[in-house]
């Protein structure tokens, strides 16, 4: 997709809005979140405007993951007390996505940092229920994308 003039991340990547960058590469960029959940909270963002996972090619997803790994290494070294890292990606409003330009949150974790994921209490399914669910999901799987579809 072409840059979206209303998209804040497209503006940042085009240099039309400010951000504090860790790096810019050919396909992805990493900059600090302006409303950090934790100090050092970094966003890895594709340069192309893709709204969510469905539009992400395996190639671009690979670049995002590789960039996220670089950021994670920097956080472990550069953020005092950082002993672990969470990746978080919200795909869709109901999943918490607020900026509809796909991005990976990279979060430096420290002991007692107060960050957590609230999980509802779900009854553990039986083996049969798990198998029935896996069968249903297998029929919903899209075909793997071929390398030729790389962009
Ligand atoms: P989402 O809620 O879509 O998963 O994450 C969007 C993230 O973008 C939020 O954590 C929010 O703080 C961040 N964000 C929103 N506007 C800006 C901005 O103008 N600059 C930067 N650096 N981050 C932003
Ligand atoms: Zn965008």
What would you note in describing this structure?
This protein is of the alpha+beta class and 151 residues long. The chain is built from three helices and five strands; from the N terminus they run H-E-E-E-H-E-E-H. It has a single domain (8-140), classed as HIT family, subunit A (2-Layer Sandwich), CATH 3.30.428.10. Strands 1-2-3-5-4 form a five-stranded antiparallel sheet, covered by helices on one side. It is globular. Bound molecules: guanosine-5'-monophosphate and zinc ion.
Q: What is the class in the CATH system? A: Alpha Beta
CATH architecture field = 2-Layer Sandwich
Task: Give me the CATH superfamily.
Answer: HIT-like
Give helix and strand order, one letter per element, not per position: HEEEHEEH
Q: Could you tell me the number of beta strands?
A: 5
Percentage of residues in DSSP E strands:
15-25%
CATH topology: HIT family, subunit A
Rg to the nearest angstrom?
Answer: 18 Å
Number of helices: 3
Helix content: 25-40%
State the distance separating the first and last CA atoms: 11 Å
Strand order of the largest sheet: 1-2-3-5-4
Structural class: alpha+beta
**Mean pLDDT over the full residue set:** 94
Named once each, the bound ligands are: guanosine-5'-monophosphate, zinc ion
* Count of distinct structural domains: 1
Sheet with the most strands, sense and barrel status: 5 strands, antiparallel
Shape: globular
Instruction: List low-confidence stretches.
Output: none
